[in-house]
Amino acid sequence: MTNFVTHLECANCGQKYDPAQVHNLCTACNRPLWVKYDLAALKKAFPKEKLKDRPANLWRYLEMLPIKDPIRIVSLEETVSPLLETKRLGAAFGVQSLFVKDESRLPTGSFKARGMAMAISKANEFGIKRVAVPTAGNAGGAMAAYSARAGMEAYVFMPEDTPATNKKECYLSGAKTFLVNGLITDCGRIVGEGRKPKGWFDVSTLKEPYRIEGKKTMGLELAEQLGWELPDVILYPTGGGTGLIGMWKAFAELEALGWLKSAKKPKMISCQSEGCAPIAVAFSKGERFAPKFENAATIASGIRVPAAVGDFMILDAVRQSGGVALATPEADIPKWMRLGASTEGIALCPETAVCLGALEVLLKNGTIRPTDRIVIFNTGAAHKYPEAVHEELARVDIRQPIDWEKI
Hints:
Layout: E1 5-10, E2 16-17, E3 33-37, H1 39-45, E4 83-85, H2 87-93, E5 97-102, H3 112-126, E6 130-134, H4 138-150, E7 153-159, H5 164-172, E8 176-180, H6 184-193, H7 195-198, E9 201-202, H8 211-215, H9 217-225, E10 233-237, H10 242-257, E11 267-273, H11 278-284, H12 311-321, E12 325-328, H13 333-344, H14 350-364, E13 373-378
Parallel strand pairs: 5-13, 6-7, 6-9, 7-8, 10-11, 10-13, 11-12
Antiparallel strand pairs: 1-2, 1-3, 4-5
Helix pairs in contact: 3-4, 4-5, 9-10, 13-14
C-alpha cells in the first residue's frame, strides 16, 4: 500500500522532521509535531468511493493514516462508533437536532483506544519494545491493553485518586502501574525524566505525533456518517485536547480531498469544568497559551489536565472555527450525567456531562441556535466512574408489608 506521509512538522515553529525516524516533541521549541501528507497525490489515489465495502472500523481510512506496513497494525477491532440522534435529550434543551457520538463502544470503553491503537501500531513499526504514559485514567488503560496486544512492556503513571476501574484495567493488562501523589502533569514529568534511565518511548498526549492521527478518525467517521456534510456545532470535553485538534485536522484534510459537500466547518466548543479550566481561562483572556491551572480538582478525571502541551493548538482550532472555550459548574456534573441516561439510555461519562452544561449556557447567550445541528462526543463509558455519582435509592424491607403508595 502507498503511504502518503511526506514529513513531520512542528505545529508551533514549522521545523520539519523525517517521518522514518522516531520523534517526540520538536527539538527546537519543545512543542508538538503534526503528521503531514501529500494531499494532492492522496486525492488522486483515494476517492471516497474506495470506502465502499470496507470494514466498519477506523482502519477503513488507512490511506489517510501514518501506517506504512499494515502487517504491523496493533488492533482490538476499533469499531466505527455510533452516532445517536437524541430527540428527548434535545427537547430538554429546546434544540431540534442533537446527536451523541458514543465513543464508549470502543475497546477499553473510551475514545483513547483510537489514539493508542495508532501510537502503539507506529511504535510496533519502529520496533519499540517499551512504552510509558502519564494518565488521568482512560489513556493508561488503553495503552496497557494495546501494549499487551503488541507484546510490549508498558509503564503507567497515574494520580493516586484516579478512578478505581482505570487502576484495575492497567493492572489486569500487565502494565507496571504506579500511583503518584500529584496530578497528571507530575506523572508526565516522571515519564519524561525516565526516558534515558529506563529507555522507554513516551506516548504522552501530543508528545508523539501519532495519537492525534488516531483521534482524527472521529472527525472522518462523523463526516461520513452525516453524508460528508459537517454539523453546525461540536461540543467536546477538553483535557489534553487531542480529539478536538485531531478532528479539526481531519476536516481540513477532507476539504483538501474534495470530499465535503461544502466548505462550512462546525463551531468547535471546548468544554471544561470550573474545577480545571486552563483553556477556558486562556480563551476568555484572548491568550494563545494557557498558564497552568492551580489546584485543579474535578470528578471528570479525564479533563483534569492543568497544563496541556497542545494548548495553543486547541485555542487555534476553537478560534478558527468561530467556536468558544468555556467552563461550567463542577457541582452540576452528576445532574447532567443522569439527564443523559434517564432521557436516552446513554451512559454519559462525567467529562461529557460538562458539555451539557456548556450547551445550556451557549443556547442562552445565542452562540448556539436551537435550529443548529449539534454533536456531542461521549468520550467514555459512565460505568468506569463509580465514584462520580452518589445515588439516593429507596429501600424495600421484605420483613414488612409493602406500602404500595411509596413504590
